[in-house]
Structure formats: C-alpha cells, structure tokens
Write a structure and sequence with these properties.
about 190 residues, two-stranded antiparallel ribbon, alpha+beta, about 15% helix
Length: about 190
Amino acid sequence: MHSYHGVHGRLPPAVVYGKDGRPLYSWRVLLLPYLEEQELYQEFHLDEPWNSPHNMQLLVRMPASYAPPPRKASKLPAYHTYCRVFIGPGTLFEHPEGNTLASITDGTSRTLFVVEAGEPVPWTMPEGLAYDPNGPLPDLTGPFHDGFRVTFADGSRGFIRKDVSEAMLRALITRNGGESVRYDEVDP
C-alpha cells in the first residue's frame, strides 16, 4: 500500500470502476506490481470485470499475500481471501479515486488498512466491507475464532480480539473521527 501511495500519491481505490461506472476489480489487483507480481498484473485485462472469461482464468494465480493462513486454507473456497478493507464514510477507502495517507488525522497507528475478516471473496472481486457510522458493524467473522488479524496504516500488524468494544472498533475503522484508541484491546 505504501509503495503504491509513493508512486501514485494516493492509496489504491477499494474498487476500480469502468468508464461506464461498473465495478471491475479489487484494490488487490492494483497492488500486484508492488508484490513482485508484475507479470500477473500485465496479464489482466484491466478494462474487463474480474469475472470476465479471461480474468477468471487468473484467479488460480492468487498471490501468497492474499492467501489465508495455511492451517485455515481448507475452510474457504479455492482462490478466496479474507483480506478486506473498509469502505464508507470516514474510512481510509471512502473515496472512489483513493485517499491519501495525509487524510489520516487520527494517526496511522490508529487506523486500519487491511483486515483478515468478513466473508471470504474471490481475491480479484471488487467488494469491500461496507461501513456505516450510523448502522451495524459488518460481520467480521474470519479464519480465527477469537478475533481477526489487522494491518494498520503505519504498516504494523496486530490482532483484534472478538470481545473488542464497538466504540474501539469504530475508532480504528475511521481515519479522521478524532476518537481515542485503547491499545489494551489490540494484541501486537
């Protein structure tokens, strides 16, 4: 994510849209060149949706970065991932064109980048975890029974326990809400 930001001056959008406004593919495709997967990236038809006949053939080449932990792989369909980002008001992936790291006024160590939670999706599918500040939280069930792994916007990683308070989770999801964060609810 940081390398992409360094080149483009912004983070990748959560969903890449076509000229006609249709969702095409996920941010995970845009990161391929930064995961030493340039050849795979060049094989994508970037003007076609993730599930076009051509792009569907590339699902089998899911990078290890998006794969579930080895002991959990049998619990989800092939070529699916739990790596998801939050989209919605106040999230890091709120804007369709991508946000900047400078938009994080809560602090990069207090803002979620990627979570390993929610329903698994095909790794190229353009779908984020919808966040509504006034609605219920999205389902964050994932491969672990006691919580989920996260990456923060500063690049650090952690584990959020299942019993985390809703207020704490909402504070971590938003990039600019000004909420305080208690680190006793996040395991390094």
